[in-house]
Write a structure and sequence with these properties.
Blueprint (H helix, E strand, L loop, with lengths): L4 H28 L5 H10 L3 H30 L5 H28 L4
Length: 117
Amino acid sequence: MYKTTGFISFALRRFTGVALSLYLLLHIWVIGAATQGAAAFNERMDTFSSPVTHVLEILLLAAVIYHGFDGIRLIVVNRFRITDKRKSMWVAAFAVSVVLTIVGGLPMLLYALGIEF
């Protein structure tokens, strides 16, 4: 049961959903500092300017892409009743998510490392 693509899809979707919700709260907290002035906003932004946060931004990108594509896959499966293609559709959605994460995350990683391309 725990090795099926259905369970893996479910677990990843829940994990990315919780991660995106936590990020949204953090984002609101940081942006909310703008109401306290530029100095407070810049202080909170400086808190998140470490190399670790650059890696976390790449993971955020991966979570957004996967969560979105898996959601689209679920809509297609449920709307058009394509239950016999669920596994291959999940593999395709996951593969597209990985490719787009690499394409989008590579420039972010190079920027974090200070490498110009």
